[in-house]
Design a protein that fits this description.
The chain contains 7 helices and 7 strands, in the order H-H-E-H-H-E-E-E-E-E-E-H-H-H. A 7-stranded antiparallel beta sheet has the order 4-3-2-1-7-6-5.
């Protein structure tokens, strides 16, 4: 879902509709966003969809990776888009259906979208195989252990790979500056907004159901009391009970 007034929306709007409001350091991110919106590429999957291409890269360079690791790799033609979400800017990799499924690129289930929060990306790297094909690898890094995880591996169909890498890098750095400028308290609220809203909604309906049940019990109790008080006056009691049901 795109949010009007979200970070990506404002990045586009300030540079396009009102350049006077654009910060000089944000221009590169806006141009990067324009370049990376609707960009056709190949997305490389292994296993469940986003395991590291490291095994294949290792094989290319004479590493000890197993044959199984390399043959699990699967390239899918895709385009990339961007969206503002309740968790912040999001990269969306959208696989395209193949007209020739026997042509070496496998299909992805219809409607599937690989999503990566921009805040997850810490590094953008380029790797090459022995045929000089270049791959862009989006990575996250755990600073405590210095371990690196590959989030997605892409190869550009059109355009310059260095330019594409720079566009990703500009967006990652822009998002880092944007998040750093948010006070810690507000950042925690932003990150938990979706969960809080769902919890508040569930609590609202639970409270409403409890109130309705309580109201029904009270009406039944008043009906029973009226019947008892009127003794044999059955129709009078029923008429008074109906008035209770109608809110009189």
């Amino acid at each position: 879902m795109n949010y009007i007034g979200g970070p990506l929306f404002l990045l586009r709007w300030k540079g396009g509709a009102c350049p006077c409001l654009e910060k000089p350091e944000d221009k590169g991110a806006r141009l990067g966003l324009e370049l990376l919106s609707g960009l056709p590429l190949k997305w490389y999957r292994t296993g469940r969809d986003a395991k590291s291409i490291g095994g294949m890269v290792s094989n290319w360079f004479g590493g000890s990776s197993s044959k199984t690791q390399a043959t699990e790799l699967d390239a899918v033609e895709a385009i990339i888009e961007w969206a503002d979400t309740d968790k912040g800017p999001e990269l969306q990799i959208k696989p395209q259906q193949q007209s020739n499924p026997g042509g070496g690129l496998k299909r992805q289930p219809a409607g599937y979208i690989k999503t990566i929060n921009l805040s997850q990306i810490d590094k953008v790297s380029i790797s090459q195989n022995d045929t000089s094909s270049s791959f862009i690898i989006l990575q996250s890094e755990k600073k405590e252990s210095s371990s690196i995880t590959d989030l997605a591996t892409l190869s550009v169909q059109k355009g310059d790979v260095e330019q594409t890498k720079e566009a990703f890098t500009q967006l990652v750095e822009w998002d880092g500056r944007r998040r750093a400028a948010i006070p810690d308290e507000e950042r925690e609220i932003d990150e938990e907004t979706g969960l809080k809203q769902r919890a508040q909604k569930a609590a609202h309906f639970a409270k409403r159901e409890i109130e309705m049940q309580k109201s029904r019990r009270e009406r039944e109790k008043r009906k029973a009391s009226l019947v008892k008080e009127t003794g044999g006056l059955k129709y009078t009691a029923l008429a008074m009970a109906n008035r209770i049901d109608n809110g009189a």
